[in-house]
Amino acid sequence: MTTVTLDGRELILGVTGSIAAYKAVYLLRELRRRGARVTVCLSEHAREFVGPLTFRTLSGRPVLTSLFDPHSDAAVEHVAVAEQAAVMLVAPATANLLAKAAHGIADDFLTTLLLAVQCPVVMAPAMDGGMWHHPAVVANVTTLRARGVTVLEPDAGALASGLSAQGRFPEVEAIVESLLAALTPGRDLAGERVLVTAGPTREPIDPVRYISNRSSGRMGYALAAAAARRGAEVTLVSGPTALTPPGAVAFVPVQTAEEMREAVLHHAVRASIVIKAAAVADYRVQAPAEQKIKGKRDLTLQLTPNPDILAEVAARAGGAFVVGFAAETQDVVANARDKLEAKGIDLLVANDVSRRDIGFDAEDNEVLLIDRWGGGRPLPRLPKTAVADAIFDEILALRAAHPAPKAVR
Question: Which of 179, 258, 282, 317 has the most neighbouring CB atoms within 10 Å?
Fold first, then answer.
């Protein structure tokens, strides 16, 4: 499978008249950062919230506003614009837009484009009060989904009116993941049960202090999102991070290595693919203080090794394909091969975390894929989303080349 990205893709971003229209600016910046070529189409009411100049500056393209604008060459070319698009996104999508789209009303440039496009359509709703649950809105969303339109669930929380309900603009990362899913040509992980671990663990010293590491969790979250996008049933076991869990995954939050071990062993029995991307602390404090440690004085901590979750999973995995990660600072290849053999796993993803531009707490990674059959494949520096897809491509290729069950170790 070709890794799915937004790089070089032609996108249409439709923006409607919601207070959340300002968030479309941040969304546009993220789409452009990922290499997408974006044409923005504003409804009449959207222009009351954010002007065309903002979107034109960020997209580097003219903004579509009116079908009958005599000063716009694109105004009479809505069919051509529609034909060029790889995906059309409406964000925010108001209740009014959902109703028009469900009933085929085309009374402005945006709704006309929705009828003209042949590409996948994704809508990110945003609305106030209890509108999302109104029977009319529910019926319109059901109609659109039945036609193959991806209509995201809005987030719940505080709204512009001061009410708290489901209606908030979805997180930008969730919208991007939905776009990637819409562009994914096949669901080659359908039927797979994928278990992914992510983030650091925190080992308490006392009630307010802990031992941890620099892992951001981005790689694990990217793997979970990629697996879900490609059709798998996904469970994500994550240590503490600042990330929003990907949609359509079962999320299991943990704190300590012991908690992660318990969760992993519980879910691994059903998994066909297990990917241990978490940076589990090697040691924990043997006897954490029950109260906050006071005073400034020399302090000695008695540390004890944490369980080796990866090796334990590999020993119990049966026919599951097990992937581990190696964060190295020197002799990356040699240390990675030693770890692969010692853990008894199928594939190891190694990277040099001494570099600040990749690995821990970075958006990109540059890794080496080493498998138990003697193969090795370097991946150049890529966004972690692309690395995630490449890892799954490698897993599928290795399983196809070596279909026999793993030998007992």
Answer: 179
Q: Which of 96, 213, 351, 365 is catalytic?
A: 213
Chain centroid offset of residue 210 CA: 28
Which of the four CATH numbers 1.10.3720.10, 3.40.50.1950, 3.30.70.360, 3.40.630.30 does domain 10-183 have?
A: 3.40.50.1950
Q: Which residue has the tokens 């997180």?
A: 171
Instruction: Give the 3-state DSSP-derived string for 42-53, with helices as H, strands as E and coil as C.
Output: ECCCHHHCCCHH
Q: Which CATH class is domain 193-401?
A: alpha beta
Q: What are the pLDDT digits (tens) for 36-71?
A: 999 999 999 999 999 999 999 999 999 998 776 555
CA distance linking residue 357 with residue 350, whole number of Å: 15
- pTM value? 0.69
> Residue 203's pLDDT is what?
97
Query: 242 near 205, Cβ under 8 Å?
Result: no
107-134 residue pLDDT tens:
999 999 999 998 999 999 999 878 999 9
**DSSP, res 159:** -
Region 155-177: what's the mean pLDDT? Answer: 87
Is 80 exceeded by the pLDDT of residue 256?
A: yes
- Annotated catalytic, 213? yes
Structural domain boundaries in the chain:
10-183, 193-401
Select the more confidently predicted residue: 354 or 294: 294
Q: Are the beta carbons of 131 and 161 closer than 8 angstroms? A: no
Identical topology for domains 10-183 and 193-401: yes
